[in-house]
Specification:
CATH architecture of the largest domain in chain C: Orthogonal Bundle
CATH topology of chain A: MetI-like fold
Radius of gyration of chain C: 26 Å
Number of domains of chain C: 2
Oligomer: heterotrimer
CATH architecture of chain A: Orthogonal Bundle
CATH class of chain A: Mainly Alpha
Number of strands of chain A: 2
Low-confidence stretches of chain C: none
Order of helices and strands of chain C: HHHHHHHHHHHHHHH
Shape of chain A: globular
Helix content of chain A: over 70%
Chains: A mainly alpha (296), B alpha+beta (382), C mainly alpha (289)
Strand order of the largest sheet of chain A: 1-2
CATH class of the largest domain in chain C: Mainly Alpha
Distance between the termini of chain C: 61 Å
Radius of gyration of chain A: 24 Å
Strand content of chain A: under 5%
Mean pLDDT of chain A: 87
């Protein structure tokens, strides 16, 4: 190996070390963990090797609850946030006056601390003995009786979680879609106008196909992101998500690893691999659907 | 400083991994550049001229062969130790540095006993800037300069180290036509005044001819001919060189030798003796056997070698006459000529463009013969 | 015929203004939804504890703003500590990461070595690995190295980012090769070329990466939560969670909001200062989380 080669490897060394230690090694290690039955964190011993951890996790009611919550969250937030973002981006691209201001405002949630703003959402939605909270005030104007969204019924809690999740993911989607809409060649619109194409038809036949790759990208990243939901839930319902019945898969992994119910890295690993498998499957399905419907 | 290249060879591994043999970019190139001269390395793109330049500079290591600067073997010396300055095709100016900092950059790299004081550096920078008349622009960034000005910064940066050798890689190709002409003169002037041995790479034969003391014509990594520009033009070594030099290009006919006459498409155009000199000693490789009854040859005629003349032997279909002020360009066609035929004649010769045909006599010194198979020049009679 | 076309024109005009009105209504509505939490936290943070708790029906403004809550936020809970911790964590992580990725990106972009393509492909494939998959072992590793409740333990796992290496490599590659050769003729070493030429030229991308990383660090929650249980090492996210659960007493919401405002302000100011850069950077590949 000559001097040049050595230098190149030297330049790469820091990242190889860090990636090796904190990305590559854990990747294999997590597989090992997930197969070691009855692993004890303190004594670092285990009884045997097998699939027991997976079976335990799949039969754990907390995991099933987390699985259900996560799927509901994904199914609700991904379509709504993507559709809403498209609507808002279309609105943004049709105006000139105040456009910059709106864009700036819409981006704000991206740069805020999820935990901190989640606390504000909690206050907005929470009903305590002292106050019904702002949201209930608004609801009462429409003649509805107060609901506790934070400690109340399941669907109320799920509603807040979805609402907050959408609020958090919108900036990125609006940004991407506004960019995609702006990059459609205006000649297409001119041509459509000359042909007397209606606005709706122009949207369906020209705009949508032109931005479909970006929509597709957003849907895929949206799915992945929503499956990994965790800190939004913590922000709203506190760290003990199992007690609130609002745990997510990622939350389950962390709880298994650490916290009040923690100390079971094997279960955590099994759950993490299950999560990875779910994400991989969904992404592959998306890709297959996408291949048929996306015009690049 | 004299530069000597001996058997210089560069092979690159083939990009296509299935083919194992290497690409030979430069093939046993040997020539000498005399001290203080400007030589033009000339050839079509991919002929190995830039690779040769990079090896002289030290950016590429030769696969084989040696490079001497004066008496010193510099083949394996790093570029910074060779005392070379280089100007790149796109100038390679650092976009984030001002003109002054750009010119200063090479000096800041000097180490050890070559290290200069701050004052000395500034003095050298100003001197180099003055040489290319950049004094007014020293605090601008490259993006704020015109192409010609950027070019001058690049030259100043190459000269500031006071190199023994100046290397220019297609330095004019990014300038517009008028600026190119002007910059060409400036480079020549700077080279004369500094007396630095200079190598100039270009694919533009006109550029090379006008500026160089010597030109080296290359093709496929092999040197075709070396000489003073006019000598090479007047006495090309092979068909490639003849075709490559001159605008409009030389007119190439397929012809024959019959009974001591040059014959194009059945018409005897010139006696063989007018074109070829008798060789004293038998040298079959360069000469031609007069006694042979019939032989196919390539006949190449420079555009200025045609003389319109009513009883001229070469009859062509006249396509047009272009008046270019001092000269007239006649465009014609001939069955034996592979492309459109162009002849340049002085404007005072009258040509009736309404005619369908035109007849030419030929100036023998503008007619070259080449071997039909190899394209090698046929110089004499045996 | 003429009247018809005039009518059509008027109809088209009307349609246009209706559409525009709908657009602005929708946009304003969403803007309000986005801004409401910010307004509400500011408002609540300047309401006094007594007046806040006296409102059974929330009021939309206050006539007697107070800064008492901010004083409480800094005195009753170690908010300053959290902020300093986060600052240390953010600066150190970002600085080390920039160092690591600049060298790696340079090696991939400019240096030639055997196996470069293979190594780069391996790097890229690591981008697909979700952090949840590796965090378990990392937790064990850091615990095993006895680095829990230390800055080192907080920082080390997040000092490399394959995505940023990739982004920077692409940028480095756009610097013309000729500059590199020119620098070599002048005897510039790789290190000096990187420092004096590449980094200044690629500064815009580096700034984008820096800002994105700062945002990521400032908001990071999961890893710090796993690795610190000593409040002396809490970052702001954990601090907020701690304040919420054990802080001012559960009911001092105005003080909590004051803390939330303090935590949110640095990034919002940063965003307003570098709005264009951040938005361009995020659309080039930032993903929340």
């Amino acid at each position: 190996m000559n001097r040049h080669q050595t230098k190149a490897w030297l330049y790469l060394l820091p990242s190889i070390l860090f990636l090796g230690l904190f990305m590559v090694y854990p990747l294999f290690d997590v597989l090992v963990y997930s197969m070691e039955e009855g692993y004890n964190f303190a004594s670092q011993t285990y009884f045997g090797v097998g699939l027991y951890n997976y079976s335990y996790v799949l039969h754990d009611p907390y995991f099933l609850q987390a699985l259900k919550n996560t799927f509901i969250l994904v199914i609700i937030t991904v379509p709504i946030s993507t559709g809403l973002a498209l609507l808002i981006s279309l609105g943004l691209s049709s105006i000139k006056f105040l456009k910059d201001l709106y864009q700036t405002i819409y981006f704000l949630p991206y740069v805020t601390n999820t935990l901190a703003v989640g606390l504000v959402f909690m206050i907005l939605f929470q009903k305590t003995e002292y106050t019904d909270g702002l949201v209930n005030l608004v609801l009462s104007w429409f003649g509805s009786s107060p609901v506790d969204f934070i400690n109340g019924p399941y669907w109320a809690k799920m509603f807040v979680l979805c609402f907050y999740t959408i609020w958090v993911v919108m900036p990125f989607k609006i940004l991407i879609l506004t960019g995609a809409l702006a990059s459609v060649n205006p000649d297409y619109y001119k041509a459509a106008k000359v042909d007397g194409t209606s606005a709706f038809r122009t949207f369906v036949r020209i705009t949508l196909p032109m931005i479909s790759p970006m929509m597709f990208y957003l849907i895929i990243t949206g799915f992945i992101g929503a499956f990994k939901a965790y800190s939004d839930a913590v922000a709203l319902f506190g760290t003990d998500l199992n007690a609130a019945g609002m745990n997510t898969i990622v939350g389950y992994i962390y709880d298994m690893l650490y916290g009040n119910s923690g100390g079971f890295p094997s279960y955590a690993s099994a759950a993490a691999i299950l999560l990875f498998a779910i994400i991989l499957t969904i992404t592959c399905m998306n890709m297959m659907v996408g291949k048929k419907h996306i015009h690049y | 400083m004299e530069i000597r290249l001996q058997n210089l060879t560069k092979k690159f591994p083939n990009r296509n991994k299935k083919i194992s043999n290497d690409v030979i970019a430069v093939d046993h190139v040997t020539f000498t550049i005399p001290d203080g001269k400007l030589i033009g390395l000339l050839g079509p793109s991919g002929c190995g001229k830039s690779t040769t330049l990079n090896m002289i500079c030290g950016l590429e290591t030769p696969t084989d062969g040696t490079i001497f600067f004066g008496e010193q073997d510099v083949t394996n010396l790093a570029p910074e130790h060779r005392g070379v300055g280089m100007v790149f095709q796109n100038y390679a100016l650092y976009p984030h540095l001002t003109v002054r900092k750009n010119i200063l950059f090479p000096l800041e790299n000097l180490k050890g006993k070559n290290k200069l004081s701050k004052d000395e550096m500034m003095r050298r920078v100003n001197q180099a800037a003055a040489l290319v008349q950049l004094e007014e622009l020293m605090d601008r960034k490259p993006a704020e300069l015109s192409g010609g000005q950027q070019q001058r910064v690049a030259i100043a940066r190459a000269l500031v180290k006071m190199p023994h050798v100046l290397l220019l890689d297609e330095p004019l190709s990014n300038l517009d036509a008028r600026l190119r002409l002007q910059t060409r003169e400036e480079i020549k002037k700077i080279q004369r005044s500094t007396n630095i041995t200079t190598v100039f790479v270009t694919h533009d034969q006109e550029e090379a001819m006008s500026i160089s003391d010597f030109i080296v014509v290359m093709k496929s990594g092999v040197v075709q001919q070396i000489g003073k520009p006019q000598e090479v033009y007047d006495d090309p070594a092979n068909l490639f060189v003849a075709k490559f030099l001159g605008t409009p290009p030389i007119n190439v006919f397929s012809g024959k030798i019959e009974n001591g006459m040059l014959v194009i498409d059945g018409a005897s155009v010139l006696p063989l003796e007018a074109v070829l000199k008798p060789l004293n000693q038998p040298d079959t490789s360069k000469g031609i056997d007069k006694s042979k009854a019939e032989q196919r040859v390539v006949i190449a005629i420079r555009p200025e070698g045609f003389v319109p003349c009513n009883d001229g032997p070469l009859c062509c279909d006249l396509q047009g006459v272009e008046v270019m002020g001092r000269d007239i360009s006649i465009v014609a066609q001939h069955a034996a000529c592979e492309a459109v035929l162009r002849a340049i004649i002085t404007a005072d010769t009258k040509v009736d463009s309404a005619n369908d045909t035109i007849r030419f006599a030929l100036k023998p010194e503008k007619v070259f013969l080449f071997d039909y198979e190899t394209g090698e020049r046929i110089r004499g009679l045996v | 015929m003429l009247a018809d076309s005039k009518k059509q024109e008027r109809w088209a005009q009307q349609k246009k203004s209706i559409l525009s009105a709908v657009s602005y209504t929708l946009l304003t509505l969403w803007a309000m939804i986005v801004l409401l939490p910010f307004y509400w936290m500011l408002l609540t943070s300047v309401k006094s504890y007594a007046s806040y708790n006296a409102e059974h029906t929330p009021t939309f403004f206050t006539l007697t703003p107070t800064l008492q809550n901010y004083e409480d936020a800094f005195t009753a809970v170690p908010l300053t500590q959290y902020l300093i911790n986060t600052l240390i964590f953010t600066v150190a992580t970002t600085a080390i990461m920039l160092f690591v990725i600049v060298f790696s990106a340079y090696a991939f972009a400019r240096l030639n070595f055997k196996g470069k393509n293979l190594v780069f492909t391996l790097y890229l494939s690591l981008m697909m690995i979700p952090s949840e998959l590796v965090i378990i072992t990392n937790f064990a590793t850091i615990t095993g190295l006895d680095l829990r409740n230390t800055f080192l333990g907080l920082i080390l796992p997040s000092v490399t980012s394959v995505f940023y290496i990739y982004l920077l490599k692409e940028t480095f590659e756009q610097v013309p090769d000729e500059l590199y050769r020119a620098a070599r003729v002048d005897g510039t070493s790789d290190l000096k070329y990187l420092w004096k030429v590449m980094i200044p030229i690629c500064r815009p991308t580096l700034i984008t990466i820096l800002i994105l990383k700062v945002i990521e660090c400032w908001n990071s929650y999961v890893w710090p939560r796993l690795i610190t249980d000593d409040p002396a090492y809490y970052l702001v996210s954990n601090g907020i969670q701690e304040i919420r659960e054990n802080g001012f007493g559960r009911e001092n919401i105005p003080a909590m909001m004051a803390a939330v405002v303090v935590i949110s302000i640095p990034l919002i100011v940063l965003f307003l200062m570098f709005r264009k850069k951040i938005m361009a950077g995020v659309s080039r590949g930032g993903i929340k989380g």
